[in-house]
Amino acid sequence: MVVLFEGIDTCGKSTQLELLKQKHPEIITTKEPGGTAFGIKAREILLESSIISKRAELLLFLADRAEHYEEVVQPNQDKLIISDRGFISGIGYALANGDFELDDLIMLNKFALQGNLPDKVILFLTDIQTLQERLGGKDLDGIEQRGLEYLLSVQEHMRQTVLTLGIPHLFIDACDSIENIHQTILTYLKV
Ligand SMILES: Nc1ncnc2c1ncn2[C@@H]1O[C@H](COP(=O)(O)OP(=O)(O)OP(=O)(O)O)[C@@H](O)[C@H]1O
Ligand SMILES: Cc1cn([C@H]2C[C@H](O)[C@@H](COP(=O)(O)O)O2)c(=O)[nH]c1=O
Question: Which residues line ligand 1 (CB under 6 A)?
Fold first, then answer.
């Protein structure tokens, strides 16, 4: 089973993935971008904000997704795989960047994933105050520097995309405590 942890920057995905991995080391945990050797290089380019063309940015995220699918997801289909981000981020951030149609983005992402969408999505939803506080506590990369309004619009596109595609999902209140969220995820995943 493939599960995506999704949500905008600082909503708590990595914290929860780490907690889950501690309790269940048998789970295959991975991330996009950065779950493969190619992805580590792509991530550096994507986050340093040197790409001017939003199409080039989209295509590099898609290349990373295709490589990640073949290298990490496909060989582990029989296990529980949880990825810190995936194609819901791919669509949410691209829609917030403008100039793209949802149908085109779905088609491109299905192409990258060889038609195999994840089984479940856990989407963390935050609010402006929490986002501001948590972003304030870190050095911002090129994408985070696009600002609060941009990130909240990504979040809404992600929410709408999950609903439009009808993927089994859990919406998480990212402002809840770390422990409460952990318990909610354990219950949802039945692990
Ligand atoms: N439920 C929570 N309550 C309070 N603080 C939290 C909670 N979850 C995470 N944090 C803190 O918020 C910050 C961001 O968390 P984390 O790195 O897990 O987010 P993320 O979604 O993986 O971020 P990014 O996508 O930017 O890598 C960290 O300092 C973390 O300790
Ligand atoms: C997969 C994917 C990611 N992004 C953005 C989202 C974040 O700002 C960064 C990744 O950094 P993180 O520390 O792993 O959260 O990349 C995107 O714009 N498009 C995508 O497809």
Answer: 7, 9-15, 134, 137, 177-178, 181
What order do you get walking across the sheet with 81-84 strand by strand?
28-31, 81-84, 2-6, 120-125, 169-173
42 in Cβ contact with 113 (< 8 Å): no
Least distant ligand from the CA of 15: 1
* Chain segment 55-76, per-residue pLDDT in tens: 999 999 999 999 999 999 999 9
The one-character DSSP state at 31 is E
Contact between residue 69 and residue 113 where contact means Cβ atoms under 8 Å apart: yes
Q: Is 29 annotated as a binding residue?
A: no
ipTM of the complex: 0.99
Give every CB contact of residue 50 below 8 A, 6+ residues apart in sequence. 142
Q: How is the chain split into domains, by residue range?
A: 2-189
Q: Which residue carries 């969220």 as its tokens?
A: 181
Q: Are 30 and 72 in contact (CB under 8 A)?
A: yes
What are the backbone dihedrals phi and psi of residue 122, each rounded to the nearest 5 degrees, phi first?
Answer: -110, 110
Distance in angstroms (rounded) separating the CA atoms of residues 52 and 123: 29
Q: What is the per-residue pLDDT across 84-136, written as a single tens digit (0 to 9) for each?
A: 999 999 999 999 999 999 999 999 999 999 999 999 999 999 999 999 999 99
178 Cα nearest atom in ligand 1? 1
**Regarding the domain delimited by 2-189, which CATH topology (the fold level of the hierarchy) does it fall under?**
Rossmann fold (3.40.50)
Phi, then psi, of 177 in degrees rounded to 5 = -75, 155
